[in-house]
Every structure is written in structure tokens, then in C-alpha cells.
């Protein structure tokens, strides 16, 4: 069975690079604007930048988001990034085709936008309160193994992103469903 909610981390999961001001210099330096998200500009379909830093959407993300929607799951962004504004602006610039084929900003497809620097167990406790979904009906894709605490403490499904994508690439498109489907 496909999960009811698929949660995706931001930095190094949906895109390469850091948007977190604690990890990078986004929105800093000569001529920078306040707030930091006002420094982001779109370079092309995949990439955004400010005056000195660039980051880009991973090529698999549009197809993955379409698959999540096709299977009726809700999308959550769950990140410990300290700048919700930067993340939301970046996800507004990046477009994907929704389940009906219409091009939309990724942020417009997100049902739960949980971007703040707190433990991810707190993010999911809030989502559970709003949705009444059990933790086993949710899955988190993340680039950092330390975030498997959601699996250990809450009993929800968690996957290190690189493992899931590697399985998908090696075994073809059917493995994507197998990676996030549960018996």
C-alpha cells in the first residue's frame, strides 16, 4: 500500500546545495537584500542563485512528485532548515507537472510545509495531529542518516534518499513503487 503522506527534506534531498543561512551565505554580502529570500533569482529550469551561491533541483524530483500525486499521497516538506522563506521561495521557482499535467510550483503542491529548526519528530507530531494519520502511514525521504529518529522514536517509515534513488535507478521504474510501498 502506498503511504498516505510522503515527506521530503530540502537541502541535499530535493536540491543540491544549502539554503540554510547557518550552513551557507545566502542573502549575505555586499548588496544583499532583506529578507534573504529576496536575493534568490532563477537561472534556468533547474538552478537558482543569489549573488554568490547557486543550487539546483535534482533531475528526478519532478517525476517523483508526479508519482506521489498519481498515487494520491499528500506531500510534506519537513526540514530543519532555519530559513523557511528561502526554502519556500526556491520551491516556488522550481516547477513540476502536477498529476493532471499542468505546470505548477512545487510549493503549491505541498500540503504541509514544516520548515523550522526543531527535531523532525516534532514536525511529524504536528502533521499527525492535523491529519490523524498514523505514523506508519507516513514516510520520510532524507539525505542524513541521523534523521532516522523518526523511525526509531515514532515507528514511521524512513528512507535514506540515496538508497531509495539508487534502487530506483538500478531496478527500473517499478522499484520506485516497491521502495515506498508497504505490504
UniProtKB/TrEMBL annotation:
Entries under Pfam families matching the protein: Acid_PPase
A molecular function (GO) term: acid phosphatase activity
Transmembrane segments: none
Classification via SUPFAM superfamilies: HAD-like
InterPro entries: HAD-like_sf, HAD_sf, MDP_1_eu_arc
Residues in coiled coil: none
Name assigned to this protein: Magnesium-dependent phosphatase-1
